[in-house]
């Protein structure tokens, strides 16, 4: 499989940032493009308290600034070509739809690690993407990020299975 385009979905969390950094590391030597995506679910308040403003246009603008600013720093540092998109809707569905529309060869995203009642009530965006995407999905769990924000490759999940870098 040749990787020409990676969709990196982000909500600004540390695991999402780790997924973007991972996408940059993969894309750079391949000359692949990264499509950086953030999804706003106005009906359900996603991305939550980070953007409490009732002004939807302002929220989209702030997300676009974050996408083209701090959230894409690892892509710029790696000199990876990227585009930033802000979309409205249910995050999992929009991520899957955007991956198909952009003809992404791979989806990279973080997982907040919600479990139990929180996941049952809110659902897991990562889980839904994993089950509905027609392309491989790399999920960075919270355990993939150290205190200084570096990726711990031995703890990432690829397609729902753990990946042990020491075993390869």
Q: Topology, pairings included?
A:
Blueprint: E1 5-9, H1 14-30, E2 33-40, H2 56-68, H3 73-77, E3 82-88, H4 91-101, E4 106-110, H5 117-122, H6 125-132, E5 137-140, E6 157-158, E7 161-162
Parallel strand pairs: 1-2, 1-4, 2-3, 4-5
Antiparallel strand pairs: 5-6, 6-7
What does this structure look like?
- This protein has helices spanning 14-30, 56-68, 73-77, 91-101, 117-122, 125-132; strands at 5-9, 33-40, 82-88, 106-110, 137-140, 157-158, 161-162.
- Strands 3-2-1-4-5-6-7 form a seven-stranded mixed β-sheet, with helices on both faces.
- α4 (91-101) runs parallel beside α6 (125-132).
- By secondary structure, it is α/β, with parallel strands linked by helices.
- It has a single domain, classed as HUPs (Rossmann fold, 3-Layer(aba) Sandwich), CATH 3.40.50.
- It contains six helices and seven strands.
- Mean pLDDT is 79; it is low at 117-122 and 150-168.
């Amino acid at each position: 499989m040749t990787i020409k385009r990676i969709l990196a979905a982000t909500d600004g969390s540390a695991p999402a940032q780790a997924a973007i950094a991972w996408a940059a590391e993969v894309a750079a030597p391949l000359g692949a493009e990264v499509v950086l995506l953030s999804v706003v679910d106005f009906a359900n308040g996603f991305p939550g308290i980070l953007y409490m403003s009732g002004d939807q246009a302002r929220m989209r603008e702030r997300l676009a600034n974050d996408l083209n600013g701090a959230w894409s720093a690892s892509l710029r540092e790696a000199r990876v070509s990227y585009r930033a998109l802000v979309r409205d809707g249910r995050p999992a569905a929009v991520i899957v739809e955007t991956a198909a529309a952009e003809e992404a060869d791979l989806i990279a995203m973080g997982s907040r690690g919600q479990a139990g009642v929180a996941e049952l009530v809110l659902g897991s965006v990562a889980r839904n993407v994993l089950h509905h995407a027609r392309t491989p999905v790399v999920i960075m769990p919270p355990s993939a990020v150290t205190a200084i924000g570096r990726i711990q490759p031995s703890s990432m999940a690829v397609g729902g299975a753990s990946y042990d870098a020491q075993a390869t």
